[in-house]
Amino acid sequence: QTHLVESGGGLVQPGGSLRLSCAASGSTLDYHATGWFRQAPGKEREGIACINRSDGSTVYAASVKGRFTVSRDNAKNTVDLQMNSLKAEDTAVYYCAADPDLYCSDSEPQSRDFRSWGQGTQVTVSS
Q1: Residue 42 CB contacts under 8 Å (≥ 6 apart), including other chains
Q2: Which residues are CB-contacts of 30 (< 8 A; sequence separation ≥ 6)?
Q3: 113 backbone dihedrals φ, ψ, rounded to 5°
Q4: Mean pLDDT for the chain?
Q5: CA 22 to CA 121: how far, in whole Å?
Q6: What phi and psi, each to the nearest 5 degrees, are found at residue 121?
Q7: What is the pLDDT of residues 20-68, one digit of tens each?
């Protein structure tokens, strides 16, 4: 059983940056595809990024490509999401998810493909 915990959320001004971290226990993220999702009030959950197991290849949704970067630290067993040039529309609860059998190829990861989920961390972009 993979247990995931997100951290790093908070309040940031438009144009600012935040770095989210997804820490895993119970398994090794290097052997999982790890995705980042977000859900804004009144909207469906959106897949925004994924880093694949082993080869570390990444995919990004068009809404965040060029601004967000997903990376994995195998020594810490974490997957981070560096978010730059934040906009008000990035405000949401951000979740990480992992699955050992998935290979992300679509630009928008799908929630149904991931077995393990974190509890989420709030990101608010506001002046």
Answers
A1: none
A2: 53, 54, 72, 74, 77
A3: -90, -10
A4: 96
A5: 10
A6: -140, 135
A7: 999 999 999 989 999 999 999 999 999 999 999 988 999 999 999 999 9
Residue carrying the six token digits 């959106």: 46
Please name which of 125, 103, 123 lies closest in space to residue 113, comparing C-alpha atoms: 103
Distance CA 105, CA 115 (A): 17
Encoded tokens for 82: 């560096």
Q: Rounded CA gap, 94 and 47, in Å?
A: 10
Cα gap 106→82, rounded to integer Å: 20
SS3 123: strand
Q: Which secondary-structure segment (H or E) carries 10?
A: strand 10-12
**Are residues 96 and 70 in contact, defined by beta-carbon separation less than 8 angstroms?**
no
Contact 35, 96 (CB under 8 A): yes
Structure tokens at 25: 């226990």
**Which tokens sit at 53?**
């197991």
Per-residue confidence at 107, pLDDT binned at 50, 70, 90? confident
